Amino acid sequence: MEPNLDKSENLRNFFAAPVNQTTRERIFFSRLSFDLKIAAARNGYHLHLYEPDVDRDGFDIVVEDEDVSRWFQTKAVLASAATTSWEINAGLLWPTVDVGEKYFRDPVQCGRGGGVILIEIDDTDQAGNVVYSYTDYDIITAIAEGFLTEQIAIKNGPGRPYKPARLEATETLKLIHASDRDKKVWVSRKLFIEMSSADALLSAMGMRTDNNYGIFTIRNSFREVSIDEVGNSAANADIALVSALHYHMTILAGYQPTATESKPERFKSFTWVKLPPSG
Fold first, then answer.
1. What is the DSSP string of 117-166?
2. Is residue 141 within 8 Å of residue 134, measured between CB atoms?
3. Which DSSP symbol is given to 183?
4. 1-14 pLDDT, tens per residue?
5. What distances in angstroms separate CA 218 from CA 44, 66, 129, 133, 252, one per listed residue?
6. Sign of the C-alpha dihedral, residues 188, 189, 195, 199?
7. Could you tell me how far CA 96 lies from the centroid of its own chain?
8. The pTM of the whole model exceeds 0.85
């Protein structure tokens, strides 16, 4: 019988070594590709995934679900690392021309409409498990507008005060808008939604699944549905808009892992405040 040796330290040292950075990226690119393709197969179709010949336009992969093609940057990070933000190409995040109209963006201010996949590697366990998180322009907008409400308890005390995700998102959008297409902006971990599964990731990316959230509801509700600082909608909001938005933000928030006492969900949908019935 082989001795039960814990090789988690070997794995951690391998991933942490700078000389293995490219190898690490290839390992987890292969893992991401496998997980997404299996998730697509579970939803009844073949997912196409391509890599660019040259890494110069701010994206690592192109994903196509037979209906939609989108561009994505991937970022692999060790769970033990203290990394809290990443540089992302502004032109990758800028919405496409057709979507830009919803956000009052001129065509020259539009880009690829891509997203960012965060691959967090559990380097404390020899199994080498990963956790995926995701963000894009629509999700950052949803956080900035209050459509997704942060649930993290803010503790007062010494040190730098906590910056709420809504403020972080608002400031990040300003940086994205002010940057040139080929310049990079820092995107905080606070603006990523952790995914419970590869199926959830596939849905959040805008690929076809049986449980897609309606990304269009964020775009249609931009500057139309107002959410206050505690996450309540204005009572006079358009019922059709606010009801659809609330429904689909609940689906999006549901992509997160099941909440526990030690790890609550970071985001939930806003609270829909309804007018009392007349008469």
1. EEEEE-TTSTT--EEEEEEEHHHHHHHHHTSEEE-PPPPP-SSSPPPPHH
2. no
3. -
4. 455 566 777 877 88
5. 27, 23, 32, 19, 11
6. positive
7. 17
8. yes
